[in-house]
């Protein structure tokens, strides 16, 4: 029998680590505070509609393939490639820009707006692709023993990329494109990292490469929650037990190791090893009481934007919406400068709409659609009172009504709103930040909370706020990295021995 591991959290990070470790003969149990698995990759069922709670698409689909291969199974999920990747509406233009991977089709969308678009995108993505491939195995998919080791690792990345550390993504885009529209659209990825394109380093143009050239964007047949369901099925087949409504509140230790984590009822959960899938920074502060992660110090860190999400079941079909569609305005710079630090939500905010019933009709009753609307908002440090939630939602829906020509007021059958308060309380997201710690150069690699604890020898971390970072495929990579750490420290049960048991 392998060592016993307790994982705290049944998010994608926890589940994929459970899958990898149980495949290697470890005995795994998971403690989860919510009543069902998935963390942010969760599901809401209401009034006959089914909604994915958070993620609606992903890049780097091959990371999931790698995970299933690692577990010795066929990928049980059916992935659909998004084409177009997404649509973008600006307020001063009736037609959306459809963003295609096919450069000829993309150039058509920018006809009369950005000349020689295909050649320009090609040039931009060639450089972005170089950064991606020069850092993928040297930096991103690698465990570093210390900050010094990380900094040494960086020296292996070709020097030609160095200037892109010092200029912003926006200035990089300015070097390649003339139109405001092209620059704004390609800079949207910066918001996923927790910053604006005006202060995100240009190296992150690699994300444009992942979306537009490398692997594109994908969703899952049957809805994104299928990922969670299939992962749970696979781990349970391997004997992993998941305890829901079990929140870790405290810990016990002896001889430099964690001896138990303690839940809200005072029950002690003992194991040889522990993996924390809760936020790696906040957990160190709140549960382990580390000074470096005390509330004032956590508040000084950079966090990604918080989600304000609306789940809408509507009667009828809405034209002019794609699998995922951004609704922007024409005050991008002003918006980007304000959005991280304001306590006021503008009457006409920027938002994103996803209609999963388009590709999964079973998610809505006949003749109806399910809408997921995500508006990135300041986290609870900047706006703690969300009593204006209905008003904010009404403003967004009024704007959407005008832009797609659909009467939401008359046709809404189901409406649920989650503010950063609910996102915080459901999954312990720090100050309601949606994607966890941001990805400035001072919070990535050796500067991000490590996946091996600084104090306790048997404690590890996986997920969005440890290495390498946030987003579904990156969290899957995180599970690979922590598994490598654990097996390097504690070994693998030989297959032969496993079969004899
Ligand atoms: C609205 C929204 C939209 C998003 N859209 C996308 C997208 O389209 N594509 C994409 O790639 N990414 C997207 N993301 C990001 C993605 O969801 C995350 O990066 C990823 O799901 C994080 O997984 P995780 O396992 O690290 O954390 P989580 O999913 O947060 O899992 C951690 C788990 O730990 C549990 N937990 C926390 N504290 C405790 C405790 N003390 N005791 C017990 N259990 C505990 C939580 O309840 C949770 O289940 C989105 C995120 C949000 C919020």
Mean pLDDT equals: 94
Looking at the overall shape, the CATH architecture of one domain is: 3-Layer(bba) Sandwich
What characterizes the major β-sheet?
7 strands, mixed
How helix-rich are the residues, as a percent range?
25-40%
Structure, briefly:
With 501 residues, the protein is α/β, with parallel strands linked by helices.
What does this structure look like?
This protein has 501 residues and is an alpha/beta fold. Among the domains are: 4-79 and 222-301 and 435-500, FAD/NAD(P)-binding domain (3-Layer(bba) Sandwich), CATH 3.50.50; 102-215, Guanine Nucleotide Dissociation Inhibitor, domain 1 (Orthogonal Bundle), CATH 1.10.405. Helix content is 36%, strand content 19%. The protein contains 19 helices and 19 strands. It has helices spanning 12-23, 62-70, 103-109, 117-140, 147-154, 163-166, 169-176, 180-187, 189-193, 206-214, 225-237, 280-286, 295-300, 332-339, 389-404, 408-411, 420-427, 472-490, 495-500, and strands at residues 4-8, 27-31, 43-46, 49-52, 79-81, 86-89, 97-99, 218-220, 241-243, 248-254, 257-263, 268-270, 273-276, 306-315, 324-327, 351-354, 368-377, 412-418, 459-461. It has a seven-stranded mixed β-sheet with strand order 7-6-15-16-17-14-18. Helix 7 (169-176) packs across helix 8 (180-187). The longest helix is centred in the first third of the chain and has 24 residues, at 117-140. The chain is globular, with a radius of gyration of 22 Å. The chain starts with a strand and ends with a helix. The relative contact order is 0.18. The structure holds flavin-adenine dinucleotide (FAD).
């Amino acid at each position: 029998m392998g060592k016993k591991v307790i994982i705290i959290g049944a998010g994608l990070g926890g589940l994929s680590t459970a899958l990898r470790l149980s495949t290697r003969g470890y005995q795994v149990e998971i403690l989860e505070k919510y009543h069902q698995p998935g963390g942010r990759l969760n599901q809401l069922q209401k009034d006959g509609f089914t909604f994915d709670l958070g993620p609606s698409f992903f890049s780097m689909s091959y990371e999931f393939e790698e995970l299933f291969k690692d577990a010795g199974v066929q990928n049980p999920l059916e992935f659909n490639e998004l084409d177009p990747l997404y649509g973008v509406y600006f307020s001063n233009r009736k037609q959306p820009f459809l963003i295609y991977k096919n450069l000829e089709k993309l150039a058509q969308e920018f006809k009369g707006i950005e000349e020689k678009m295909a050649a320009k995108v090609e040039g931009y993505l060639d450089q972005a692709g170089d950064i991606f491939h020069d850092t993928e195995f040297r930096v991103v998919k690698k465990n570093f023993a210390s900050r010094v080791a990380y900094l040494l690792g960086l020296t292996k990345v070709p020097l030609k990329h160095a200037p892109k550390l010092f200029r912003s993504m926006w200035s990089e885009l300015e070097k390649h494109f003339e139109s405001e529209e092209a620059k704004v659209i390609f800079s949207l990825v910066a918001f996923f990292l927790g910053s604006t394109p005006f202060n995100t380093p240009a190296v992150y143009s690699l994300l444009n490469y992942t979306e537009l050239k490398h692997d594109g964007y994908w969703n899952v047949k049957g809805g994104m929650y299928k990922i969670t369901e299939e992962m749970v099925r696979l781990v349970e087949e391997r004997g992993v037990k998941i305890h829901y409504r079990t929140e870790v509140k405290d810990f016990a230790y002896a001889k430099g190791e964690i001896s138990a984590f303690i839940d809200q009822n005072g029950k002690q959960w003992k194991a040889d090893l522990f993996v924390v899938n809760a936020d790696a920074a906040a957990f160190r502060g709140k549960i382990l009481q580390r000074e470096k992660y005390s509330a004032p110090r956590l508040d000084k860190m950079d966090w990604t934007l918080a989600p304000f999400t609306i789940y809408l079941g509507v009667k009828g079909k809405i034209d002019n919406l794609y699998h995922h569609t951004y609704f922007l305005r024409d005050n991008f710079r002003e918006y980007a400068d304000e959005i991280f630090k304001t306590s006021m939500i503008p009457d006409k905010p920027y938002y994103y709409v996803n209609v999963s019933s388009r590709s999964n009709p079973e998610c809505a009753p006949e003749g109806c659609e399910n809408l997921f609307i995500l508006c990135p908002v300041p986290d609870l440090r900047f706006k703690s009172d969300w009593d204006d939630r209905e008003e904010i939602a009404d403003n967004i829906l009024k704007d959407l009504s005008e832009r797609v020509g659909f009467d939401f007021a008359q046709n809404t059958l189901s409406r649920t709103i989650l503010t950063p308060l609910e996102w915080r309380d459901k999954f312990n997201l720090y100050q309601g930040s949606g994607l966890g710690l941001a990805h400035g150069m001072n919070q990535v690699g050796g500067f991000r909370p490590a996946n091996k604890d600084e104090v306790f020898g048997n404690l590890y971390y996986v997920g969005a706020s440890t290495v390498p970072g946030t987003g579904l495929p990156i969290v899957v990579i995180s599970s690979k990295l922590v598994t490598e750490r654990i097996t390097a420290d504690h070994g693998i049960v030989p297959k032969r021995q496993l079969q004899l048991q």
